[in-house]
Amino acid sequence: MAGGTAPVRTVIWAGHLALPLAGLGLLIAQPRVDLVWQNNPAHFWLVGAVALGNVVLAVLIDRAAVRRRDARLLLVALAFLAGAGFLGLHAVATPEVLLTPNAGFVLATPLGLLVSGLFAVASAARYGPERAERIVRRRSVLRAALLAAVALWAVVSLVALPPLTAAQTTAYVNGLAVPAAACFVIAAYGYWRAYRRRPGVLLLSVLTAFALLAEASVTVTLGHSWHLSWWLWHLLMAAGFGLVAYSAYAQYQREGAAAGLFDSVAADATVRRIREEYRTALDTLVEGIRSGRDPVTAGLAERFGLTDGQTAVLERAAEALAAERDQLRRTRCGSGWWSTASCGSPMVGRPRRGR
Fold it and tell me: Taking the CA of residue 123 as centre, how many other CA atoms within 13 Å lie in the half-sphere pointing to its CB?
């Protein structure tokens, strides 16, 4: 059943992603439908709120990257931080709110999309253990370089250096947005392959976010300022970042703990290591239950960031697994397949050699 519904869900998902591009095509083909709506305060607060929320999201993913020592999560966090930083500059450029707009601030969004796209496509690549560890160790340098680039662009925009002239804005926008769209498409494809190997809600939301940001990059080049086609790329960016934030919030509400929220987004090697850690923890708990010792679930709960509810579930699972292993041991001992010494031990024995 699952195999039959998967293609249908894929078609539905792709159909929803195609709707914004279909709307953009309609607005371009029918200019009279591409209405003008210039609301400066609405633009400032919408873009500013999306940028601020994205900073929070980037920080959460960065903390998960450090906790798991995962290069992919770190690069995803930097991709979101880049989008937030340059989008914030675009918010500051809103006319008649804080500053007078200029070409530098107009170009902040496509430039931010390009930088974000480069981090996104880098996150979709596969790294060996040593290279991944080097990336994680240099997280402070990468983060500082990104923030410095945002600050430098702000200064360049404020002083209005000669290359940033209004006459060249359109050419610059196209030159930045096209490769940005290509980067997000490549990144989305990489995450699609990862999702097919191990489906996860957060992994799907990041994949969808990168697809939406690719569409936003295309829309930036075709939209007309203050028209509906121009507002569309704002909404696409808000939807992309917002989807990841909402998925993380929904998972937090469901699990009651922040630890492990972004584990499904991590690299394959990290996911395997996490599963092995949980398997080892469960075995430790089972051995404690079967030997009659205190299973020290508090230590395991602290180690893995589990809530009281999750700890209770872990205890019940360990008790069920211990009972199942004891039943299996008794069955095998009764059949004479296992050694007598092993049958007398509360631990699972080993089969005699030669049998």
Answer: 32
Q: Round to whole Å and give the CA distance between 273 and 271.
A: 5
Question: In this structure, what are the phi and psi dihedrals at residue 100, rounded to the nearest 5 degrees?
Answer: -80, 125
Determine whether 22 is exposed, middle or buried from the number of CB atoms within 10 Å of its CB (0-12, 13-18, 19+): exposed
| Entry pTM | 0.79
> pLDDT for 159-173, tens place per residue?
766 656 655 566 777
Report the 10 Å Cβ neighbour count for 215.
Answer: 24
Element holding 174 (H helix, E strand): helix 169-197
Q: What is the DSSP letter of 36?
A: B
Contacts of 305 (CB under 8 A, 6+ apart): 257, 258, 259, 260
Give the burial string for 280-302 (b: 16+ CB within 10 Å, else e).
ebeebbbbbbbeeeebebeebbe
Instruction: Please state, in angstroms and rounded to a whole number, the distance separating the CA atoms of residues 95 and 40.
Output: 6
Report how far residue 295's alpha carbon sits from residue 66's, in angstroms, rounded to the nearest whole number. 29
> What confidence tens digit (pLDDT) does each residue in 218-266 have?
998 888 888 999 999 999 999 999 999 999 998 888 776 667 788 889 9
Are 313 and 277 in contact, with CB atoms under 8 Å apart? no
